[in-house]
Amino acid sequence: MGVILQQEEDNMRVLRVAGILKKSEFDAVIKPEAEQWGLQTRVRLLVLAEGFQGWEKSEEWGDISFFLKYGDRIDRIAIVADQKWETEMLIFAAAGLRRAPVKFFPLRQIGSARVWLREKV
To answer: For residues 47 and 93, is the Cβ–Cβ distance under 8 A?
Structure first.
């Protein structure tokens, strides 16, 4: 499957990832979406990683241009994945390096992740 991005209500986006995440697939989905965001757009992102197996080995992951250009338009990021991916997923989402709070939830807590995303920042 790779990567699928779905728009939901209230500027919520669901990014579904499975298998090995490839930089080319990630960019093909996320960049066209972000290019549509206006300067005032604020997005809340739910990353749902079911069947996730890690990242493709590639130096391209070091490209932070997306983060620099669009990072301030993301208000919150909730990551839902197998517990074994917690540290790597938080690093991937630049938790602690961005203004937006980033929080990890185990797979069984997708409902809690959605509630947290809807809370006021």
So the answer is: yes
